[in-house]
Design a protein that fits this description.
With 422 residues, the protein is an alpha/beta fold. The chain has 12 helices and 16 strands. The strands form 4 sheets. It has a 5-stranded parallel beta sheet with strand order 9-10-11-12-13, sandwiched between helices. A 4-stranded mixed beta sheet has the order 3-2-1-4, with no helix packed on it. Strands 5-14-15-16 form a 4-stranded antiparallel beta sheet, with no helix packed on it. Helix 2 runs parallel beside helix 3 (133-147) and helix 5 (195-209) packs across helix 6. The longest helix has 18 residues, at 101-118. Residues 49-97, 196-403 form the Amidohydrolase domain.
Length: 422
C-alpha cells in the first residue's frame, strides 16, 4: 500500500481496496471496492485514481461500551489480585479519594485522543453516578462532548448498582442529570430479591423521560444469575419502545443449553441489543489464585447472531482495576474477539459488530462504505484476514472527513501528575 502522505493533493479515487462485504452492501466475505475522497463525504465523482494494492478498508469504528471516567487510574489504583471484587473495591476507594472534575477531565480527554488516533468515531461511556460523583462527572462529560464534537460522537449512560435504583431520591436525581445531558439511563443488574421491581422503576423512569436504557448484567460465572432474562421480561412487560442495550451476559455461557435458549428466545422477542466485552471479561472472569481459568468469559454471540439478536463487541475498561491493559483500539477488540469467540470459520458479517451494529444499537450516526456516507475510514496495509489479525496494524491510516489525521498517541507521562495516591 502506498503511504497516504505521498498521495497527491485534491480529490482522489482509491481503487483496488478490499472491504468486508457486509460493510459494502454486498454478499460474501472480502470484496474489491473503490472509494472516492472528495470532501467530508464519500463521493462517486470521477477524479484521479490511486491503486491501493489490495489494502483493507473499514468505516471508522463505534465503541459502544466504555468507562472513560475510570480509564488510566491503574498506576495509582492497581487491582490487588485481578478479581472482580478487587476491581470493585479499588475503584470505589479511588473514586472517593481522587475523582475531581480536573482528574476526570484529564483522563477522559487522554482516552479520547487514543481512541481517535486508532480510528474510532463514536463512543458510549458509562459514568459512575453514585452521589456525589454524578454532580461531578456529568457536567464534565457535557463539556468534553462539546469539545470533541466533529471528531468523536459521544454518549453517556449512568452507572449505579441495581440496589440503588429507587423511584425517588438519589437515583431520580441522577435520572434528571441523564435527561438534562441527553444521556442513557442505566444500572448494573445482578440477582437481588426485588430485581423485577427495580427493573420496573428503571423502565418507568426511562419511558417517562423518553430515555434509552443500558444495563450491565450477569458479569459473573454463576449460572444462577439470570438478569438478562429478567431485563427481557421487563421490557416486554412495559411495552418499552426505546433502545435497550445489555452488556456482558457472561453467566449465559455457563447455563444449560435449554435454559440459555429460553433466555435467548426472550431476548430476541424483546428486541434487546447485546454487547460482549471480550478483553475485560477474559481478564476478570474465572480468575482464582493458583488455578488455570476454564472459561473465556464471553457470552453466546454465535447463538445470538443465529437468532437475529444484534451482538456487538466493545472495549470496556482501559488501564484500570477492571482491566489492566487496552487502549480503546477497536481493531484490537475485533482481533481479540475473533480469537476468543472463534468468529473465524463463522459468519462473514462479524465486522458489523464494531461498526454498523453498535451504531444502530446506540442511535449513533450510521456509516457504511456507500457514496455520500461520511469519509471516515480506517485503511490497513493487510490484504486478507490472516494478514490483518496477525499484526496489530499500528501503521494503519485513519481518514476523517476525507483527510488523513495525525495518529500520534498521547504519552502516558501526561498523566503522571495525577497518579500519586491521595
Amino acid at each position: 500500500m502506498r503511504d497516504f502522505r505521498t498521495l497527491p493533493d485534491g480529490p482522489l479515487r482509491l481503487v483496488n481496496l478490499h472491504a468486508p462485504a457486509c460493510l459494502a452492501g454486498q454478499e460474501g466475505d472480502l470484496v474489491r471496492i473503490e472509494l472516492t475522497l472528495d470532501g467530508p463525504t464519500l463521493s462517486d465523482a470521477r477524479v484521479p485514481e490511486v491503486d491501493m494494492d489490495g489494502a483493507m478498508v473499514f468505516p471508522a469504528f463505534v465503541d459502544m461500551h466504555t468507562h472513560l471516567d475510570k480509564g488510566h487510574i491503574w498506576p495509582r489504583a492497581a487491582n490487588p489480585d485481578g478479581t472482580f471484587m478487587g476491581a470493585l473495591t479499588t475503584v470505589g476507594e479511588d473514586r472517593a479519594a481522587n475523582w475531581s472534575a480536573e482528574d476526570v477531565r484529564a483522563r477522559m480527554d487522554f482516552a479520547l485522543r487514543c481512541a481517535y488516533a486508532h480510528g474510532t468515531r463514536a463512543i458510549r461511556t458509562h459514568l459512575d453516578s453514585i452521589p456525589p460523583q454524578d454532580d461531578i462527572s456529568w457536567p464534565v462529560f457535557d463539556e468534553i462532548r462539546a469539545e470533541w464534537a466533529g471528531r468523536i460522537e459521544l454518549q453517556a449512560a449512568c452507572l449505579v448498582g441495581i440496589e440503588n435504583v429507587t423511584a425517588d431520591g438519589a437515583y431520580l436525581h441522577t435520572a434528571e442529570f441523564v435527561s438534562r445531558y441527553n444521556g442513557v439511563l442505566g444500572a448494573v443488574a445482578y440477582p437481588v430479591p426485588d430485581l423485577d421491581e427495580k427493573l420496573d422503576i428503571v423502565f418507568r423512569i426511562a419511558a417517562e423521560r423518553g430515555l434509552d436504557v443500558d444495563f450491565h448484567a450477569d458479569e459473573t460465572q454463576d449460572p444462577d444469575s439470570a438478569c438478562l432474562r429478567a431485563i427481557a421480561e421487563a421490557k416486554l412487560r412495559h411495552s418499552f419502545d426505546g433502545r435497550v442495550v445489555v452488556g456482558h451476559c457472561c453467566s449465559l455461557a455457563r447455563q444449560s443449553d435449554d435454559e440459555a435458549e429460553r433466555t435467548l428466545d426472550l431476548v430476541a422477542e424483546a428486541g434487546l441489543n447485546i454487547v460482549s466485552l471480550p478483553l475485560c471479561n477474559l481478564y476478570l472472569q474465572d480468575r482464582h489464585a493458583g488455578r488455570t481459568p476454564r472459561s473465556r468469559g464471553v457470552t453466546l454471540v454465535h447463538e445470538m447472531a443465529d437468532r437475529g439478536i444484534p451482538a456487538a463487541f466493545a472495549s470496556d475498561n482501559t488501564r484500570d482495576p477492571f482491566y489492566a491493559y487496552g487502549d480503546l483500539d477497536m481493531m484490537e477488540v475485533l482481533r481479540q474477539a475473533t480469537r476468543i469467540a472463534h468468529l473465524d470459520h463463522s459468519r462473514a458479517d462479524w465486522p458489523c459488530a464494531v461498526t454498523t451494529t453498535p451504531a444502530e444499537a446506540c442511535g449513533f450516526t450510521p456509516a457504511t462504505l456507500a457514496p455520500r456516507q461520511p469519509a471516515d475510514l480506517v485503511i490497513c496495509n493487510a490484504r486478507s484476514w490472516t494478514e490483518l489479525f496477525a499484526r496489530p496494524q499500528s501503521d494503519r491510516i485513519v481518514i476523517r472527513g476525507g483527510q488523513r489525521i495525525d495518529r500520534t498517541l498521547p504519552d502516558y507521562r501526561e498523566l503522571d501528575h495525577l497518579m500519586e495516591p491521595a
